[in-house]
Write a structure and sequence with these properties.
It contains 15 helices and 13 strands. The chain is of the alpha/beta class. The strands form three sheets. Strands 2-8-7-6-5-3-4 form a seven-stranded mixed beta sheet, with helices on both faces. A four-stranded antiparallel beta sheet has the order 9-10-13-12.
Amino acid sequence: MKSERALDAQPRPGGSAVIDLRSDTVTQPTDAMRDAMARAEVGDDVYGEDPTINALEALAAERVGKQAAVFVPTGTMANVLAVMSQTQKGDEVIVETEAHIYGLEAGALGALAGTLPRPLTTEWGHISPAQLESILRPPDHHYAPTRLVCLENTHNRQGGTVATVEQVEELAETAHRRALAVHLDGARIFNAAVALGVPAARLAASVDSVGFCLSKGLSAPVGSVLCGSRELIGRARHFRKMLGGGMRQAGVLAAAGVLALEQMIDRLADDHRVARLLAEALASVPGVRVDMARVQTNMVRLDLDREARPFADALRGRGVRVSVIGARRLRLVTHRHIGPQHVPVVVDTFRSALGV
C-alpha cells in the first residue's frame, strides 16, 4: 500500500494541478481519517455521551498538559470561549496588534465577549513582560479593568514566528503577578513545539487556557479544542451552548481529530523543511524579499516591489495560490500536500509572473 506521503503527492481529487499555498487549512483528511470517521462510535455530545469526542478531549488535554478540554467547530470559537470564560463584559483584554484574535475574528472580542481589546505592537508578535508592565494602569473607575492577556504561538501574521518556553513563562509570570489570566491562541502550537523540540505541554504549562486547531497542518477536516482547568472548561461549555457550538453526534469529526493528534504532529517537521527550501529559493528571485529569520515553521512571509493583489492574481492564473496579507506582502504556507518537488515549480511561476 502506498504511504500517506505518496498519496498526498498525487493530484487532488478532480485532477487539479493547483499548488495551494494559501494556508494549511486546505489540507485534506488522510485515508485513515476518512476510515475512522466512517466507523466512529457516536452519541449526543451535548449530553456528554459521545465516546469519540470524550476520547478526543481527554487526549487533547493530555497533549497540552491541562485538566480538561472542549471540542468546538473552529479556532475562532475556541478563542472567544476562552475570553468569555475568563472575563466579564467591559473588561480590557491585552492583545498583540497583528494577533489573529484581534484582527481576523470578525470583532468577536467586542461583539460576543463584550470586551475591550488593547493592542500592543511588537516586532516578532510576542508581547514582552516589560511591554505588559508599561501599559498596566492602577485601579480607577475611569478605566476598563484589565483581566486577560492573549498570546499567539506560532504567530500567523508575523510569518509563523515562535515564542520560546522561556518567553511564554516570563510573560505569564508577569501577568499572574498582576492578577491577570493568560490565554494562548495555539492554533499552530504543535508547529511551535516541533520547531523548538519540546512537548506542547511545556509551551502551555504556564498559561491558563490554550486552544489549538486540528484542521490546519494536522489535516483533520474540522475542529479545534480549548483546554484549561476543569472549572474554566465547565464555563466554556456553557458559552459553547450559547453560541450554538453543541454539535450532537460529532464523533464522526472527532475521530479524525484523534488521529490528527496521534499521527500527524511529528510530520510537521517536513512542512518546516519545505518552507525553508521555498524561502531560500524565492529569496533569489529579483523583486522578492524574504526575511529568513522569520522562516521558523511552515510559513514564508515575503515582500514584493509591486502591488501584491494583482501579482497574486497573476500567480493564481498560473496555478499557484498564495495569500495577500499587505499592500506588497504575501504569505505562503506549506503543508502535507506540498513537497520539495513543488518548490522549483513555485519559483518558476514567480519568475514568470514577475517577468524575470
